[in-house]
Write a structure and sequence with these properties.
mainly alpha; 10 helices; transcription regulation; DNA-binding transcription factor activity
Amino acid sequence: MISIRPSGALTRRQSQLETALVRVVLAEGFAHLTVDELAERLGCSKRTLYALAPSKEQLVTRTVRLFFREAAEQVEDSIRRTRSPARRLTGYLEAVAEALAPASRAFLADVAAFAPAAEIYELNTQLATERVRELISEGIASRAFRDVPALFVAEVVASTMRRIGTGELQRATGLSDAEAYSQLAEVAVAALRR
């Protein structure tokens, strides 16, 4: 994944601003916010924000990319020491729910409506699909899971993940995102177990 970075390393203040910016856009979305409002909220100048990225669109893209990169690292860290294929798959899906929990519906709606952010979201969903396929394949190879088409199961999981992310599943079932991911993990593992 390519990251947008200034030519040098970030200063401590820039790193703090990035973290604060991620929190703001996750909680509220970003379409309605101007760079002036962001600068005021973050207690910095517009120039300081423009040092991170030269336009609001690029600042948003950078922020969305950072959020998903950190979420992916958090998810992988959560299963790093787990050995059981069923626990790895369940842990992965539950960690996805936990990592995405701070993302408000406003943020997800803005991501869907802004093409560069939607591309980042879709890329991360594709990467998650590939990771689920790998976890299923590992379980099949170790004979913990039945020999099923791993890519098909991964695509079913990814489709459900997309519906969770858009809020469709919550509207249809009343389940929170975390509950939906937990149920998805249970269904997937139950379908795969020998």
